[in-house]
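Archive entry. Fields below.
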Amino acid sequence: MSDLPEGIEQRSIGDETGLATRGPPAYGEPTDDTGWRRWNPRRSKLGAMIQSGMDTGLTGGETVLYLGAAAGTTVSHVADFAGPTYAVEFAARPVRDLLDVAEDRQRLFPLLKDARKPETYAHVVEPVDVIIQDVATRGQAEVALTNRGFLHEDGRLLLAVKARSEDVTADPETVFDEVVGTLESEYEVLERQRLEPYHADHLGVVARPR
Ligand SMILES: C[S@@+](CC[C@H](N)C(=O)[O-])C[C@H]1O[C@@H](n2cnc3c(N)ncnc32)[C@H](O)[C@@H]1O
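PREDICTED_STRUCTURE:
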């Protein structure tokens, strides 16, 4: 595994050893009495990318734009080790839970917005070091392209692609090649890796702007 960013450790919590971050509990995850909480890669595509040893380029303290935050499971861990973290989610119901998660986290800013319309949050979001994307919707490459303008020139895109969101019947590898091909118009892909055994038919991608 590449070096873990500052603020992420492999720790024994309960009867398991695995990724952990330090912060207030957010969704019933196991914790220890020193403030660390388990980050289960089976519940998080970014967790799976890190656990699988992908070189995310994360060091800790980065400014983050997180697309597809849902109820905040993964972004709660991101806000534990990152700097200002803007969390975009377009479904009102999970955003209610996301707001609760953000209440305990000064650096987490939930945005009830559509990630396909970055112009609706461009006045709030500063340029970022990292875009983390897990939208599980059709047009995943286009979402990354349309948000590319927020990323510093030396920043990173950490993308989880769900094959079935693009095409339920197609061979996942064919879908991944198409998504990556579209991305490559504006990003250089540094690494791609399937996220099994943690997530079936998902691809993790690390890319930087061209
Ligand atoms: C797989 S879930 C995300 C899980 C989350 N990243 C985590 O690990 O905790 C995908 C989420 O993306 C959201 N989503 C899909 N399309 C979106 C869009 N265009 N804008 C914002 N959110 C979107 C969905 O509502 C859903 O909550």
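CURATOR_NOTE: Residues 80 and 127 are 20 Å apart (CA to CA).
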